[in-house]
Amino acid sequence: MIPGVRTQAALQIEQLDKVELAVLLLVLALAAAFGFYQAFRRLWKARVIEDAPTARVRSAHQGYVELIGEAQPMRGEPIIAPLSKTTCCWYRYTVERKSGKEWNLVRKEVSNGLFLLRDDTGECIVDPEGAEVTPRTKQVWYGDGDEPMLVVMPPRGAEGVQIGPVVMRSTAGSLNGRNRYTEELILAGDPLYALGAFKTLDDIDHQQSRSEITSALLRDWKRDWRRLMHRFDHNRDGEIDAGEWEDARRVAEREAEREHADQLASQYLHTIRRPAERGRPFLLSSLPQSKLAWRYRWQAVGGMFLFLVAGGVLVWIARLRLW
After folding, report:
1. To 5 degrees, how large is the angle CA 255–CA 247–CA 262?
2. Which pLDDT belongs to residue 209?
3. Across 44-67, average pLDDT
């Protein structure tokens, strides 16, 4: 450190009263602890990404797995990003308002709608709730609307500035405006990396589902007693005896089996979601696996830098005032 600057900083530290000194030391200690935690956590995530074997949807084991495929929407109501009105698989956005030199948060939202991961062996439902998502598509633009319905998205290429993966646009023809909008997307067809808890509908689930369908059929038949008698009162004595009821149950089981098979043909049998075990990361990304791991490693470097700087200043102040 430059001697003059160091002397001036030392004088300012020596002029702090006990309360101010305690607050400063506490802030530095928290910053150092946060930096160390982030360095450890980010490096650990990078190692998990690099070490986890990649599974296929059809043959993936039950539990914590890594899948690589492409994002696809599910059938039914589409997921639409509120700001740009883009049809997508996942979105996250923020609206910020400028106050002086700072941007204050007005609103934010993260999509929790289900979508699909598809590889060359099958499809898997992705439940993004609780995931740490790293998309590759990010756009920033400026305007005046606070509510999503009032936000205007400039046409692609109009007054746009490409900054790496981020596209910056403005409704006013320049990078100025009262509000700043940031939107991140995972689009249909994007590559998709997923690390989380994988589950396939197993035989127990199948049996429970067939049993539920069988019970529902029998309940319906009981409500229509005349039809039940016509169909299963084989001896026409006006009653359903034990043998005839057992025959009705077998017929219901066969019909339930067919209905269940039809349901399975139109349903997705695999899911990936947040692990139940605390501490295991749930990661979704449209970045390549190697680039995602590289990003976490650089974040770990940043965390370690914060730890060293904050810790070094903390030790210097403590030695100056306390030792």
Report:
1. 5
2. 61
3. 85
